[in-house]
Amino acid sequence: MRRLLHLVPPGTLAVGGGLALLGLASYVHLAVAGHALDLADYSSLSVLWSIVFTLGIGVFIPVEQEVARVVAARRSQGLPPGPVLARGATVAAAVLALLVVVTLAGYRTLTDRLFAGDATMVAVLIGALVSMAVAYTTRGVLSGLQLFPWYGTQLGVDGGLRIVLVAGLGISGVTDPVWYGAVLVVAPLLSVLVTLPPVLRAVGGGVPVAWGTLLRGLGLLTVSSLLSQVVVNIGVINARLIDPADVATAGALLSALVLVRIPLFVFGSMQASLLPGLATTATTGDVAGFHGLLRRSLGVVTALGVTGAVGAVALGPWLVRRLFDAPGVLGHGDFAWLAVGTLAYLWAMVLGQALLALDRHRAQAVSWMIGVAALLAVTVVPAPVALRVELAYAVGSVVVAATMAVLLLRRGTRPTTPTPSRPLDDVVATGVSGGL
């Protein structure tokens, strides 16, 4: 057992345990809500869920990653993390303020077209974004200081509270989607309170951090992060936008995507060591090691994707009805298209890590831009609602992966030696997603 522990990066078990509980909470949350809510209300919750995790993960995980990177760098120099926390909190607050302004500007459209006239869901959306901003910023400090037991505790408390709260709602017979959405506000905030002591100890002191140090890579990282979440989550939102009266399809799609994307959750545990491994071989000029790790990683995710696809296509229609009480509007063909999209998305995640390891952040961002453009082009093609969003997910993911592969091959994947302005710590960034 001790030998096994030495084979994984420090903190993997603590973070992995918390992440596993958080992932389980997502399934429990949607399963209980699916049985408690009617089709219209579950559709509204599905749209809320998709918006929260698209925006929350898309814009706040980059903040966590950059805070963690700078805190870790200062820690190696014996400098306190307080100034980084102050700058990171300011950035997160500015991004949050922008999201709130945009949400309030689109208040009427959101209420009428996405939430069936329920304005309270917009308030829940804003609350959930606030909680994610706070959670991801504090996680950046915990990660940078290598306080992984505290990090894993925050994830675990978040997941555990979601399970307890949503179970209580189900047992109590609550049928208002607002309360099921409010769990996404309350659980993360309480998990931050539980793990606040080490964060408070990091407050104050030290030489101020230059804005450029924190913001240097944040722009491109945010573009890639946000667009990657758009590709994987926008289908549910588009289904509601295309036909607001079709309350069955959006909810069924979210339930189907949660099942089909299980391989992405498994990849999350692998991702923690993939980027550092690729970055290490790249900065040391180990061409064979870089190519070998990239090939093995693509092989692993292909096996994951194919295995998940077989199970999803064979059992998906039955499972979503049994687990989530979803309406029977999706068949085996629908799950096949979603599985194709997930497999291609896995390839894109691995190839994107290779681009980051080679310090090609712009190439990664351009790939996601092209993929989202392809997704939107397919979405507007006249076809049944479910088929349009499924094809859009599949085509968008395939285009992203293909673009990344072409960019890697065109300029080569030969690692280069590191430069003083770009140390290894700068290209190694970890982050944990709270969604599936």
TrEMBL record:
Membrane topology designation: Multi-pass membrane protein
Predominant location: membrane
TM spans (from-to): 43-63, 84-107, 119-138, 150-171, 177-196, 217-241, 247-267, 298-320, 335-358, 365-385, 391-409
Record localization: Cell membrane
Cellular component, GO, one term: plasma membrane
This protein's UniProt keywords: Cell membrane, Membrane, Transmembrane, Transmembrane helix
Domain of life: Bacteria
Database matches in InterPro entries: Poly_Biosynth_Transport (IPR050833)
Listed name of the protein: Membrane protein involved in the export of O-antigen and teichoic acid
Organism: Micromonospora matsumotoense
